[in-house]
Amino acid sequence: MAGFRSWLFISAVVAASLCGISAEIKFTIAVGRLFTYEVMRENFQSDFDSYSQKLYTGVIHNDPMIFKCNQQGYPDLPEWLRFIQRRPSENGFLYGTPTTPGKTFIEIYAINKNSYDTARDLLVIKAVPEKMLPYQAEFFIELREVEKVLPSSVQSEIKQDLQKLWNNEALEIVNITNALDRGGRVPLPLAGHYEGVYVKVGSKKYFSRCLQKVVTPEYQRQCAAGDKVKVPGECHFCKIPSNCITWCKTKLVRGKTPFTKIIPLE
Question: What's the DSSP call for residue 87?
């Protein structure tokens, strides 16, 4: 009897692992530019809902799911790529900035929390060579969590504010990082407390006069003293409060070198 039960268990696991059709999804991204991909529950739900269910009942379920992602042939993701999914009722996000050219194959497994069936997609990310943007700036957004800024619509909102601050339409988002990955503290589990997010953008155009203010002696003195320094009025561009930057955590980089002194505008 014990052997029969073991056989049933193994059969169930095998059957679950074979549920769903593997799809291959391809993306091309430049080295040094941000890659984001939303792992959507609804895309896997159609694998879990059988054809007969949809044909005769017309019902498509909304099952909780857990996603597991790894580089094909490895137990984990490559160093440059991260995955986040807070709850089984929410979508997940893969995000990161490739550092070298080449193809990366990512396996995405969805586990249905109701039936324990699984489905699999294969994500192919092709990173192509690209010159590093010579002028880059990193901003800290205190009232955000990383999965809330990864949707393209929110990235666009943040980018519009930074374009005005830089006085430059030709900005590209280079990287987005959870503050916890940079040594930030886990916030209290209370409303109004957030992890915080770092957003780095780059351009071929030189820094604006507003951005150059962050390397002035006055700015550095105030920030070093721990003062809550506000963005100067003429440089304050923030339509949505949750997208506002923390001025004292703004950093400028020229090439691979931190930007620490004012150079005449080019």
Answer: -
The answer to whether the predicted template modeling score (pTM) of the entire model surpasses 0.90 is no
Of 95, 42, 102, 92, the closest CA to residue 67 belongs to: 92
Which uninterrupted H or E stretch holds 153? helix 152-166
Alpha helix (H) residue ranges in 18-125? 41-48, 51-56
Considering only CA atoms, which of 252, 247, 245 is closest in space to residue 141? Answer: 245
92-96 β-sheet, strand order: 35-39, 92-96, 81-84
The gap from C-alpha 212 to its chain's centroid, in whole angstroms, comes to 28
Strand partners, 202: 136, 172
pLDDT in tens, 131-151: 999 999 999 999 999 999 999
User: b/e per residue, 43-58, with b = 16+ CB within 10 A?
Assistant: bbbebbbeeeeeeeee
The answer to whether 106 and 72 have CB atoms below 8 angstroms apart is yes
The maximal CA–CA distance of the chain, rounded, in angstroms, is 83
